[in-house]
Amino acid sequence: MADEIxxxxxxxxxxxxxxxxxxxxxxxxxDVIGLAYAAAEIVAVPVSRLDERFFTLRTGVAGEIxxxxxxxRLRLVVIGDLTAQTAASTALRELIVESNRGNQIWFVDxxxxxxxxxxx
Length: 120
Description:
The chain is an alpha/beta fold. About 40% of the residues lie in helices and about 20% in strands.
């Protein structure tokens, strides 16, 4: 599967291929943003596409990547099971809770959860 734009609850979403290149820096985020910018409102990134440093908040990788999406006014949705990562990090767990309260960055289990979120 390649990265592809699909409609989820009436919203164009760039769904990133789980086997695609790692997103490990703000430049990698910009590359994905470039793919989505003209055609999608949301970028759905599987957990497997994010460098492990993303989940260790003190590295700053998550902040750099998330800020790029905010700057370009594209919503970022991280898709997948984060049980292991949140068990190891209270700060990450709190970031996820706070992000999910907003409208810019979400963490969901799958595309069905994203669809449900978009319809509420």
